[in-house]
Amino acid sequence: MRLATPLLTFIRVSVYVFLLAPIVIVVLASLNAGNFLTFPPQGLSLRWFWTFLQNDVFIDAIIYSAVLALCATAVSLVIGTMAALYFVRHATREAEVVRVGMLLPLILPEILTAIALLFFFYEIGIGTEHQIALFTGHVLMTLPFVFLNVTTSLQGRDESVELAARTLGASRYTAFRRVTLPLIAPGLATGGIFAFIISFDTFGISFILKGAGSAPLPIQLYDYLRFNFTPEAAAVSTVSILLTLVLVTVSDLVFGRE
Amino acid sequence: MKRLRASLLIAPSAALIFLFIVLPYITVLVMSFRAPAEGQPYGEGFSLEGYTHFFNESYYAMSLPQTMFLGLLTTLVCLVLAYPVALHIAFASKRWRGFLYGIVLSPLLVGIVVRSYGWTILLGNSGVINSTLRNMGLIQKPLPLMYNDFGVVLALAHVFLPFMVLPLLSALQAMDPAITQAARSLGASRFTIFRRVTFPVSMPGVQSGCILVFVLAISSYVTPALVGGMRVKTTTLLVVDALIDQFQWPFGSAMALILAVSAGIVVLIFARLTRMKWT
Known about the structure:
Strand content of chain A: under 5%
Largest sheet of chain A: none
CATH class of chain B: Mainly Alpha
Shape of chain B: globular
Number of strands of chain B: 0
Helix content of chain B: over 70%
Order of helices and strands of chain A: HHHHHHHHHHH
Radius of gyration of chain B: 23 Å
Order of helices and strands of chain B: HHHHHHHHHHHHHH
Oligomer: heterodimer
CATH superfamily of chain B: MetI-like
CATH topology of chain A: MetI-like fold
Number of strands of chain A: 0
């Protein structure tokens, strides 16, 4: 028994290191001054960040991914919140069907959903043109996260505050805007941030459904990594990690911890 | 009137899920029975050729047990690594809990491409681990850490570990500490408490974590592609290859459905063996 405790501690610490190692190593590799990903690094430098800033392919990809994620998040926030309101306030016998249905995009394998969407959009004659299929896929992937977060923040709230507002003469719209919305704001923020990050990072959907021309960041990174081993990819990855960190920190500071 | 107004709330999501999840999956099912064709994704009429082709060609057929093996091994590694961590977090002080929770969730905030890439930097022939060992004079030739089952399972376990820790954690946190105290005061050893009390109580978490990780692992694409370097052939890689590169839609669909049904059978066997209660 005396042996078991240090052993368990060792396993635990190893697992925490294991979880963080690949992420830390990517950041360290991006600071490598050499031409290749060698270890130990040949000095520290920001040259690969400079190379990356001059590479239109990656800059375009980051902008493309950010715009796509923003649009998908906006749509998901609206319809996901509506669905959460229905689920918490109105659903009775069909509640379980609604919940499972809303979580389907999360439960089903992403790559299979992407393939299914590809066939479907070809069958109706759109294919991968105009980024309609890609955008639809991103809305689907982000929807469960908005639904889950808003549902959680609604479940803790009493509907009677809204009813009180209505009794006091507020219109349905005013009651929603002035009473319900502020109450579920933290859920909306967390759901929105999650949705943005999921869309920004998702691979399968973008890989299968991207049309000709520009592609989201994970796809460009994947294409690059198949044939190149320079630390530029690490610089791109580091920027993407930093972007996520900033988003999470800002939301944490503004909305506090749930 | 009130019901009608309320149902407007669910209408957009319901339409989205029906149109873009339910109908497309039906399309895949129909596609798998279409006839193959040269020069175009599929031909006229229907046939079973997609299914027979898979089982007749050992190149494809053998990928199925290989994929199941990788999935099961990844699940086992995740369970073994996640359990001590989940126990630690569940009974940690409040101040530490948030921090440790953050470490466990952090991989989820980094894209799957970046995480798999991190593993290639660590495991490659001239990667961090091999160079360090060589510089220390411990090895002459680089150890084969990547482009094989070992590297793929390690990277997959990393990618999906949070999905094992979270269900375990919620099962453990729901446990009443009084139960373990009772067991202890009745003279049970720590190992007996774990075997007879803690583990059985956490069983629902073990079950959902295992199923989640298994399904995610066998259907993942990026990690086997990057860390396996296309040398580890999983059925998912072959499905994408058949559909996107070779334009064989009926065959690719049949393969995807064979994988899905096989995964379903494995999950059902697992549920039966562990006497899972479906909720």
